[in-house]
Design a protein that fits this description.
Blueprint lengths: L1 H16 L3 H17 L4 H26 L1 H24 L2 H12 L9 H31 L6 H25 L9
Helix pairs in contact: 1-4, 2-4, 3-4, 5-6, 6-7
Amino acid sequence: MWLKFLVVAACGAASFLIVDWVVSLLIFVLMCVLFMLTGAGFRRLLRAIWLVAPILVVIGLFQWWQLGGPTAARIVLNVLVCVVAASVLTATTPVQDLLDGVVALAKPFRRFGADPERFALTIAVMLRSIPFIAGAFSDVRDSVRARGLERNPRALVLPVFITTVAYARQTGDALAARGLGEPERD
């Protein structure tokens, strides 16, 4: 797992160092090939890219307007390299191993008052919440479409927001009931 984590970290660091969009493209293709070699499948790769595509389109257009095409391409490709690298890590590593890795990485910060187990718990809650929120979005989108309100952003955003807040409150209540919500007091 540490080697995969180092690959993700190296991709993140490289995104600051690479200044040519062609190099970014080559690394992106290499990471996609590496992802395919994991056996996770082409669909999963497309889904990982599709999730960030709307944001990257906006970023790419803004960067193109501000800094030109090559710079915009480099920035978007570098973000995609990081997304695919992280997808390789999550596709090939069990969640419990990822959480154990987070605990191990956060242990040096104990001397500053950090709680490594709390970091892992936070990430576990986040990983558990993402599919719920995506499902809520899909359900609301279908109902908005059925009512003919697909042009009304409030009809989509507000119910998803309310559902997400309710889910977060339920999760917080469940954690508090188990004594995991409040830090220990001296």
